[in-house]
Write a structure and sequence with these properties.
Shape: flat
Number of helices: 14
């Protein structure tokens, strides 16, 4: 009767709460929508300010507006992320928006920086890249659509709850009329339920006993005198207990439990309600074997005034102990291997030091005495002697260069990587300028695609571009007009494949197994200068980033060199490249 009387009040109260909740969600959706539009406005306003700066309207206000989005927008996106924390779909959409906003802001900052440096074309290119690569319209539409759909669903759910409330009110009125009849029926039903419950309890006890008997781990139930009240088949078999016999624990297993320390701990568990965890004990069981067992015990309260009992389990960990011993032995061997590797690394460091210092001194002596010999001979040196002196001097210089290249190659394999965001467009521009300065008056036609921002070691990747673009310029030296192209392709996982193509002399793919090896060359030094280690450095750098490098070419028709960088979360995971990376510079 109390339920029937109180139910209408509870229904009305719940309906009022539903209305308030619906109003709160409407307000929440409006705030989310407003915040999304504000984020879009901040980014668009910053871009508009930069465009106005590029049109010649230079003012402090425009500069402040151009940089305002970079300062405010990340906090707005974080707030939007917190406001949509209850919706996984919105969280995913906001995460995508966050990535696009960050990418767009990076290009906006780059455009502003290039504007301040006087590079108007670079600034416009950065703004165009921002609009092409990081479009916000579709992602904003997705978020707003999700929020509208969610609001509609919540309104529909609220209306449905209100309808159910009305139905329940009507049912309650009918229930009041049938209350007396229900009381009689419920009383009879409860009696039947109790009978069924008692039968179910009996069945549950039987099933529990069956499970206990089937468990392979020895289990026993002890009283306050450590007498065995109940033991499963595994316990009886391991310790030789006949079924129906209830000895004390110390009498079981022919002295297997005669451990005073364990007995005292078990009594403490019973008397002080403590728990015994992972007590290891070596026992000789009835089969004559010595076993390493782990004992666990806890007190179990019984219904009524009955004294508590002790639940004891004995886990055979003999096999685990043997495995642990083997693991310790393997660890000892591994430590020995580590020491050997450390010794080898120290020897390598000593060798590098020797190359860097001890081998340079004789070269300096050779170069110095050649100069002294020339002075000593003076004008009396003939053409043959001068040729010999020049050959020795060039050989000493070339050996010094080879030593420097070997040291660089060694450091690339051992130095720590400093991962950060790297603008590949900037690195290519720097490498292109360096290559053009070494090309002199040659005509070179460049075609460079827009390149992304990646994660990696900036100095190492700068070396990669300088070697690849330097090779492209060098091996197109026989062309009246050289053509060099730089491209990039993204895969579905977020990795990037970069390529450098030229129309130079190329090489025969039958000798491609020499590519990217130390001091391996496919052309004579008289045709093209070089030490044969540049592409070996390229391969080592890309492999350390977790990528791979390869090339395709045809004699007389140029070559294309490719390198792949994995997604940011896999940068630095070195592995053997799927495609052989071999060659030379």
């Amino acid at each position: 009767m109390v339920v029937v009387v109180a139910l209408p009040y509870l229904i009305v109260r719940a309906s009022t709460a539903d209305v308030r909740e619906a109003e709160a969600w409407v307000t929440h959706s409006a705030e989310v929508t407003s915040l999304v539009y504000r984020i879009a406005f901040e980014v668009r306003d910053s871009e508009a300010a930069i465009y106005r700066l590029l049109d010649g309207e230079d003012s402090a206000n425009l500069r402040q507006r151009a940089s305002l989005a970079a300062a405010d927008t990340p906090a707005l996106v974080l707030r939007l992320h917190d406001m949509t924390a209850d919706n996984p779909a919105q969280q995913a959409a906001v995460g995508a928006l966050d990535r696009r906003v960050n990418g767009r802001l990076a290009l906006i900052r780059q455009a502003l920086l290039r504007y301040e440096e006087g590079d108007r074309a670079g600034a416009l290119a950065a703004l165009r890249d921002a609009d092409v690569l990081y479009r916000l319209t579709d992602q904003i539409g997705t978020i707003l659509g999700n929020e509208g759909k969610l609001l509609s669903e919540r309104r529909a759910a609220s209306a449905q709850r209100a309808f159910r409330s009305n139905v329940i009110l009507g049912v309650t009125c009918v229930a009041q009329l049938l209350l007396l009849a229900i009381i009689v029926l419920v009383s009879e039903w409860q009696i039947g339920r109790r009978i069924e419950a008692e039968a179910a309890e009996n069945r549950a006890v039987q099933r529990a006993l069956m499970i206990l008997e089937a468990v392979r781990e020895p289990i026993a139930l002890l009283d306050d005198e450590l007498r065995i009240l109940l033991a499963n088949a595994a316990f009886r078999e391991l310790y030789g207990l006949p079924e129906g016999v209830r000895p004390t624990l110390m009498e079981a297993g022919d002295g297997a439990w005669a451990d005073n320390g364990l007995q005292q701990r078990l009594r403490d568990v019973l008397l002080r309600d403590r728990e015994l965890w992972d007590y290891e004990l070596t026992q000789r069981t009835m089969d004559g074997m010595e076993r390493r067992v782990v004992i666990n015990a806890r007190r179990v309260e019984q219904e009524g005034d009955t004294a508590p009992v002790l639940l004891l389990t004995a886990s055979d960990v003999t096999a685990r102990a043997l495995v642990e011993q083997q693991v310790k032995e393997l660890n000892r061997q591994l430590n020995g291997k580590i020491e050997q590797i450390s010794d080898a690394n120290r020897e390598l460091e000593a060798f590098s030091y020797s190359v860097s210092h001890d081998l340079r001194a004789p070269l300096r002596h050779v170069a110095g005495f050649i100069t002294k010999l020339e002075r000593h001979l003076g004008d009396g040196v003939d053409a043959t002697a001068q040729h010999y002196l020049n050959v020795v001097r060039d050989a000493a210089r070339r050996m010094a260069e080879l030593i420097d290249e070997l040291l660089v190659f060694s450091r690339l394999g051992r130095g720590a990587m400093r991962l950060q965001t790297v603008d590949m467009q900037t690195l290519v521009d720097e490498a292109r300028a360096l290559a053009e300065s070494e090309a002199g008056e040659r005509r070179i036609v460049w075609k460079i695609a827009p390149l992304p921002v990646v994660v990696g070691d900036a100095n190492m990747l700068r070396t990669v571009w300088q070697n690849l673009l330097g090779n492209a310029v060098k091996y197109t030296g026989q062309r009246e007009v050289a053509h060099i192209e730089v491209n990039v392709q993204r895969d579905e996982e977020g990795g990037c494949t970069f390529s450098v193509s030229d129309d130079g002399v190329g090489f025969d793919m039958a000798y491609a197994d020499k590519l990217f090896g130390v001091f391996q060359r496919l052309h004579k030094p008289t045709e093209f200068p070089g030490n044969g280690i540049g592409l070996a450095n390229v391969r080592r750098i890309i492999v350390r980033h977790g990528g791979r490098v390869w090339a395709h070419a045809e004699p007389g028709k140029g070559a294309t060199f490719y390198f792949y960088l994995p997604p940011a979360d896999r940068i630095g995971e070195e592995h053997s490249p799927a495609v052989a990376a071999r060659g030379s510079t």
